[in-house]
Amino acid sequence: MIQLRDKDKSSFERLLDFLPDSIVATDADGHILFANEQAAQLFGYTQAELANQTVESLLPGKYENAHQNHRENYFAAPRTRSMGIGLELIGRKKDGTEFPVEISLSPAATKDGIMVLAAVRDHTLQKRAETEAAVRATQQAVVAELVMLALQDTDIAALLKTVAERVAQTLGVEFSAVLELQPDGTSFVLRAGMGWEQDSAGSVISASPDFMAGYTLLSRKLLTIADFSQEALTNVARHAQATRVAVSMKVSEGALLLTVGDNGRGVTDKELGRQDALGLLGMRERAESVGAQLTIEGVPGQGTTVRLRVPMAP
User: Both 140 and 157 in a single domain?
Assistant: First the structure.
């Protein structure tokens, strides 16, 4: 256990500001004694503001009571260890944003008693990578399953129906379709689908760029519109304090336009400029990767509008 004398404390606190990790020090009652600059930035406070908080204020409200019990148990037998092994730990920023964290605990002895140093790491990017890896593994397993069915089954209609069903289930969508482009290149025939009317098989669908199937064909690239709409809706649920949200998508002037609007508090310019707003940064990165234009506008008290414009390939 670290031993700290009074004359060492100020030097120790200054030293913590040079560490790359976010450090929060608390006493046995959960009061934050000090936090380094990295911790203040991570949680969206100033260092002075954090010093007036309890550690439970950095957690979602539903975890506060349980954490008080865990804190009491830890101080009864303090030792250096990771916190919540096998559990998903969640932090809460000043603006209410919740995010996954990793926390390591170390006790330190002072003349006023034991304090604990918590090293906090934002786990958002790692969680996202883990989730994406799990999704890819699931999708690859489904592809392997469909390949095996194709090798075993000579009933093409039944196979295509299974393909449409498994794709919809794997992607978590209500609609899917297996379309066959006709020789003249102006239309598709619906061979199988999920979420369509029962007798829709055999229907002819235009290959015009004004329709989604035709747009996708002419773009000649993977479209990831669902990622943007899902991210935008997640941001609405977490931050917007909205009672209504509208999503629209259309093809206009050679581009696919996605709009997500809500009637919430309205995102501010300061929030849009934050470098730790990983949801917004992720949306911008994905937009750039497909050559799309992303605009986000907020009006205080009226809501936020997210617009994505994906140009069609020539």
Answer: yes
Tokens of 114: 């034991």
Backbone angles phi, psi at 69, to 5 degrees: -65, -45
The conformation of residue 91, written as its DSSP 8-state character, comes to E
Task: Please give the Cα distance from 26 to 72 (Å, whole number).
Answer: 12
- Classify residue 215: in a domain, yes or no: no
The helix or strand, by DSSP H or E, that contains position 7, with its residue range, turns out to be helix 6-16
DSSP 8-state class, residue 77? S
**Tell me: the pLDDT tens digits for 280-307?**
767 777 777 767 888 899 998 899 999 9
- Whether the CB-CB separation of 19 and 36 falls below 8 Å is answered with yes
Contacts for 164 with CB less than 8 Å, ≥ 6 apart:
176, 177, 178, 192, 193, 194
Nearest Cα to 122, choosing from 87, 157, 98, 141? 98
Task: Assess whether 273 and 194 both reside in one domain.
Answer: no
Q: What are phi and psi of 16, to 5 degrees?
A: -65, -25
| pLDDT digits 0-9 by tens, 85-144 | 767 889 999 988 888 899 989 888 777 788 888 999 988 888 878 888 888 888 888 888
Distance in angstroms (rounded) separating the CA atoms of residues 217 and 181:
9
Cα–Cα–Cα angle for 233, 239, 243, rounded to 5 degrees: 70
Crossing angle (nearest 10°) for helices 156-171 and 124-152: 170
Residue 53 corresponds to which amino acid?
Q
* Region class of 50: left (phi > 0), else alpha (psi between -120 and 50), else beta: alpha
Domain count, the chain: 3
Label the pairing between strands 98-110 and 113-122: antiparallel
How far, CA to CA in Å, does 11 sit from each of 3, 8, 120, 151? Answer: 14, 5, 21, 70
The first and second tokens of residue 204, run together, are 């002819």
CATH for 266: 3.30.565.10
Does residue 203 sit in the same domain as residue 262?
Answer: no
Whole-angstrom Cα distance, residue 194 to residue 166? Answer: 9
Residue-number span of the structural domain to which 200 is assigned: 126-207
